Amino acid sequence: MKYLNLPLLLLLFYSSSFCQETVKKKKYLFGNLVLKYEVLKDNKKIRHGKAYIYKDSVLLADGRYENDQRAGRWIFFSSDKKMEQIYDYSTKTLKVNKPASTVSYDIPAKVGDTVQHPALIGGLGTGIPSFMEQFLGSFGHPRFNINCDLYFIFQLDENGTLNKCSYQLKSSDYNNAGTMNFSKMPAEALVFSPAFVNGKPVASTLIYKTKYFTRTSTVISSVTTTRY
Predict the structure, then answer these.
(1) Do 138 and 99 meet the contact criterion of CB atoms below 8 Å apart?
(2) Torsion sign, CA atoms 198, 199, 205, 208
């Protein structure tokens, strides 16, 4: 008889994982991003339940955590309120990807091949800010004002694992480049979907373009840097 009750016990255990009592919290992230989320009432270090990321009251991400990990479908939006991505963390599947026109790729494909582009999960809204924070922490401030394009260059293997991250700063009068150390970044900031050519995953390069400038105030003698 005890074996007949096993499915019921498993169902009750599965259901209880979604019925744990939670409390709501709020956390300020880099670049004026705000994470609103739930944690377990008996262990407030464990994120569990619905989660939203906002910037200036604009919704940029909608998803959920299970036992401190992102789970299920997350929807990511651009700052102009357009849906950019849908990613399923449970199946590690990119359902929708509508990147900005400033995103480009280097993929080993021929004319006529069916190509699925790689993606940084979170896109420009919540993905790039993590790398911008890392970049600003290591790059420092130049000794003069600059206003230029900033490129983040991600080299991915066929599984979508980030092998190398570099940056390039380009303008008519300023150029700089370097490699970024991402080893200490949180795992959820390093989630990528690989490129596919004719249904087969391949190594690729993903390039995000954004802006970077500094402005020195003669009044307070400080430097203000754009976040992204």
Answers:
(1) no
(2) positive
